[in-house]
Amino acid sequence: MKKKSAWVLCLDEIRYEDAFDLQKKLVDARSSGKIKDTLVLLEHSPVFTANRNETFKNILAPKEIIESKGIQICKTDRGGDVTYHGPGQVVGYNIMDLNDHGRDLHAYIRSIEQLLIDTLEDYGIKSGRDRKHPGVWVGNEKIAAIGIAVKKGWISMHGFALNVKPDMEHYKMIIPCGITDRGVTSMSLVLGRTVCLNEIQEKLVEHYGRIFCIEPEKIRLGDLPWL
Fold it and tell me: Which residue in 138, 159, 177, 180 has the fewest CB atoms around it within 10 Å?
């Protein structure tokens, strides 16, 4: 049986608000059948995101200190607690019709986790899940965060953030994911060397296609002129 195709859109560094707006447009388009499932891969300018007042309290540093470091603070509508995005991190936003993938939110999150676990395995990094906390862990430290939302009849948005070589000092300004008894790490820290983000994106796309049984097809933003 021929696999369904899905689009992969790779972008340069982009502000969180701009990516959030793009996601909402893609969700509308997927819901109305104008586009295929679309995985967006990108880096963000430095930003802390949270979804409600209670989670914003896990931003520890004063606003003026955060602004002096060039970090934005943005509200979002994904699940999870406060997190950090910035250069050196591969962020993946998966706009997918989950009607075609079992309509099972827990199974979907496990699939996203597996996509990351398999990518890390390609670099010799042993990682796994935590029963209490979504995401991917190396020992007691989180290496990839996951936060999703489902809109407009089972269309997914948001996704994952894989720490490749971000500025880890920025994590000291928050309680990452609201978890006080665990740490955070990155691929460069675990491996003791730098890793090419473009290479990692290719690995992610490969595992994305295999895990979701789809044929990835790369597109450019210019291929979506109606956005």
Answer: 180
Q: Which amino acid is at 156?
A: S
3-class state of residue 164 by DSSP: coil
Digit-coded pLDDT (tens) for 13-34 = 999 999 999 999 999 999 999 9
Sequence-ordered list of residues with C-beta below 8 angstroms from that of 111, at least 6 positions apart, any chain: 101, 211, 212
Alpha-carbon distances of 45 from 90, 112, 120, rounded to whole Å: 12, 23, 24
Helix (H) or strand (E) holding 227: none
Domain residue limits, the chain: 4-223
Q: For residue 69, give every residue at least 6 positions away whose Cβ sits within 8 Å of its Cβ, in sequence order, or none.
A: 46, 170, 173
Which homologous superfamily is 4-223 in? Bira Bifunctional Protein; Domain 2 (3.30.930.10)
Task: Tell me, yes or no, if 74 is annotated catalytic.
Answer: no
pTM of this structure: 0.95
For the chain, state the CA radius of gyration. 17
Distance of CA 128 to the CA centre of its chain: 17
164: pLDDT strictly greater than 80: yes
Helix pair 105-121, 197-211: axis angle to 10 deg: 130
Question: What pLDDT does residue 1 have?
Answer: 57
According to DSSP, residue 100 is labeled: G
Cβ-based neighbours of 185, under 8 Å, separated by 6 or more:
138, 141, 142, 143, 163, 168
Going by their DSSP bridges, the two strands 155-163 and 89-95 should be labelled as: antiparallel
Q: Which of 10, 74, 177, 213 is catalytic?
A: 177
